[in-house]
């Protein structure tokens, strides 16, 4: 099925001198590279293709995968109806209303490009580009942005991505603020995030510092349940596509398409395969105790210095309206309409 979608873009014409490498082999060597992270010099013995040719094939096929899958399998919601549908899924599955996505970013470690200086140098003392992603309640990515250099600060990463520009310029129109069930204050539709992001009218983050009162800790617990989706997305991707688990020895513009291809394949496999997200592969909750059961990807040792999170942001001053929105969610989670019965046992 995947081959049928991309073969028109990767097929090569036979000549009188030699036959072209079949499209099937081109796709297979690329998928092997993404799944194993093996060097081109290693793959040449498996596919009997020279490393220089493998390099061209991988880049071309990754471009083709992203170009042909993005419209159907990696499409960002563009209407208020689609955003409300995403929010309804979060409310149904994770009991967090008005949330249309969970946002996070990861550093994709690369080998320092020649003459790049400190352009890609990050806070972990490695070189990287940043993958920014937003996931829906079903572990699918609904937005990705790849390519911001690792040197950019935590706040600058989101400020430089196209999603920020679309939200600020109102090109992406969010649903009108509505009151939460059995409440009166209208609150906007938001994304849940961690401390690496600044809180805005469309991004909600947990209360900072320790020793928070019980209602604040309940809010943080409920937000973390919803935000765990994007953690699992990145964990599953690094488990399935092991190219993400080691420094990538390619030019940054090629690393960008390698990463975009893995994102597109992630959504494609969720939609078309019953084995990609098998039971136990993602975090779940014990139906009786409600304790978290770690997904299989968490049991794999993550190599140090690869696919690490954005640097935690500094505490910022927020407007009264932003604080009021967070407080309104907090109060809602303490009501009979918004609480879940087990939330109080996780704030001790």
Automatic annotation (TrEMBL):
Its main location: nucleus. It comes from the Eukaryota. Its cofactor is a divalent metal cation. Residues 103-267 form the DDE Tnp4 domain. Keywords: Hydrolase, Metal-binding, Nuclease, Nucleus. One of its GO terms (molecular function) is nuclease activity. It holds the Pfam family DDE_Tnp_4. The keyword Hydrolase applies. It is found in: Nucleus. GO terms for cellular component: nucleus. Belongs to the HARBI1 family. This is DDE Tnp4 domain-containing protein. It comes from Macrosiphum euphorbiae.
């Amino acid at each position: 099925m995947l081959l049928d979608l991309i073969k028109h873009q990767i097929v090569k014409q036979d000549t009188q001198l030699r036959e072209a490498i079949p499209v099937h082999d081109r796709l297979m060597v690329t998928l092997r590279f993404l799944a194993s992270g093996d060097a081109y010099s290693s793959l040449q013995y498996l596919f009997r293709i020279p490393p220089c040719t493998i390099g061209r094939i991988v880049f071309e096929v990754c471009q083709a995968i992203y170009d042909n899958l993005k419209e159907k399998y990696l499409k960002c919601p563009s209407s208020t109806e689609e955003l409300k549908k995403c929010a309804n899924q979060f409310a149904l599955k994770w009991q967090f209303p008005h949330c249309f996505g969970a946002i996070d970013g990861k550093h994709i470690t690369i080998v320092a490009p020649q003459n790049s200086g400190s352009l890609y140098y990050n806070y972990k003392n490695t070189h990287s580009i940043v993958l920014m992603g937003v996931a829906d309640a079903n572990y699918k990515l609904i937005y990705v942005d790849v390519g911001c250099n690792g040197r950019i600060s935590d706040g600058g990463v989101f400020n430089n991505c196209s999603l920020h520009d679309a939200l600020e310029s109102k090109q992406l129109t969010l649903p009108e603020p509505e009151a939460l069930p059995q409440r009166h204050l209208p609150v906007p539709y938001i994304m849940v995030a961690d401390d690496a992001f600044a809180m805005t009218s469309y991004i909600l983050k947990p209360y900072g510092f320790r020793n928070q009162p019980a209602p604040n800790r309940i809010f943080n617990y409920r937000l973390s349940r919803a935000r765990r989706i994007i953690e699992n997305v990145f964990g599953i991707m690094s488990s399935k596509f092991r190219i993400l688990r080691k420094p990538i020895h390619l030019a940054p513009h090629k690393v960008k398409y390698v990463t975009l291809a893995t994102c597109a394949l992630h959504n494609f496999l969720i939609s078309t395969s019953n084995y990609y997200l098998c039971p136990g592969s993602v975090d779940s909750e014990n139906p009786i105790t409600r304790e978290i059961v770690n997904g299989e990807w968490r049991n794999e040792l993550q190599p140090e210095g690869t696919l690490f999170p954005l640097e935690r942001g500094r505490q910022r001053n927020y407007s009264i309206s932003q604080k009021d929105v967070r407080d309104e969610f907090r109060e809602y989670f303490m009501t009979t309409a918004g609480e879940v019965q087990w939330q109080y046992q996780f704030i001790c």
